[in-house]
Design a protein that fits this description.
The structure is a homodimer of 180-residue chains. By secondary structure, chain A is an alpha+beta fold. In chain A, helix 5 crosses helix 6. In chain A, strand 5 and strand 6 form a beta hairpin. Chain A has a five-stranded antiparallel β-sheet with strand order 1-2-9-4-7. A four-stranded antiparallel β-sheet of chain A has the order 3-8-5-6, with no helix packed on it. Chain A is built from six helices and nine strands, in the order H-E-H-H-E-E-E-E-E-E-H-E-E-H-H. Chains A and B meet through helix 4 and helix 6 of A and helix 4 and helix 6 of B.
């Protein structure tokens, strides 16, 4: 049983994503990962993904857990939460259809950065590391395309996050100087 | 003439990296990008890279410029600087042999995030987007390996940067509360 099946055993498994390919294809305008995908590539990718249905208040990913899969929201709404220093979950984002989550742990296998909870009945398509590795070997051009889009997404997030961090540090330095 | 040749025309071009493959291979323990590379894969990759020599005080990458290449430091020392709100360059890092720089712009073509200046005579190996695309088509498994390592590196940097940003925001919230 692939790694993700165990950690998602509390969800309703709807089989592989092949029959959801048209729905996934319709998400392209909202989904950075798929922005350069053709219908044929979406069908190919869908073959390597699994679809699950989640009820509201169900955790899909838990901060701190190990994890080997990413998910794409096909329907519904998902809150992304991270615990602060008082261990209180703080809302980082609320995401909808087209958004992907959990890419970092799929790739590096490290602990989940945040918790993801369905807040409406949700449909998610899951890609795990084992299937990504199969894509790379069996469909190398599709594999390269997925990896290229992941690099792009992470690179853009890193630019935004680094800019925010430097902005805050700059602000702190300014306050420290004006307090002298 | 490939894009990087023009922007690096002020450096001494030493040809493709094939004859530097043993030196690149020796960097594996210090180079995240290459950590899972075999000697054969390094030789293959070297074939797609160009080597340049830079004298001290020479700019290799300039913040804000467009850019389509990344570089790997083979020898020497390079300062990474970013302008603060007063337009004064601030040192972000000083890096040595084994470090790669400029990956984000190679992938997304957006403006360079920081400036890189050689502070000692330096030897750099350059990979540009055009050659990365050639690797993906001509050597898809090597292409997937490079992209996978880039995703890993960006993912780890994003984790560290996000953690720092959340830590600072948390601190600010704490100060705001204690000032009430």
């Amino acid at each position: 049983m692939p790694g993700h099946r165990q950690s998602l055993a509390h969800l309703e498994h709807l089989g592989d994503a092949t029959k959801f390919a048209p729905q996934i294809h319709a998400l392209i305008p909202k989904c950075s990962l798929l922005e350069n995908f053709s219908a044929a590539e979406v069908r190919l990718l869908a073959h390597f993904m699994d679809v699950y249905r989640a009820q509201p208040a169900i955790e899909l990913i838990r901060e701190g857990d190990g994890g080997d899969f990413m998910l794409m929201v096909l329907e519904g709404r998902i809150d992304v939460l991270k615990r602060d220093r008082h261990n209180t979950p703080q809302l980082l984002a609320a995401v909808e259809a087209g958004r992907t989550l959990g890419e970092m742990s799929m790739i590096d296998g490290e602990a989940r950065f945040a918790t993801c909870v369905a807040t409406e009945p949700a449909l998610i398509a899951v890609l795990d590391r084992e299937n990504l590795a199969r894509i790379i070997v069996e469909q190398p051009l599709l594999g390269a395309k997925i990896l290229m889009e992941l690099v792009l997404m992470l690179s853009q997030r890193l630019r935004v996050t680094s800019q925010k961090l430097l902005g805050l540090l700059d602000e702190q330095a300014k306050k420290a100087v004006s307090a002298l």
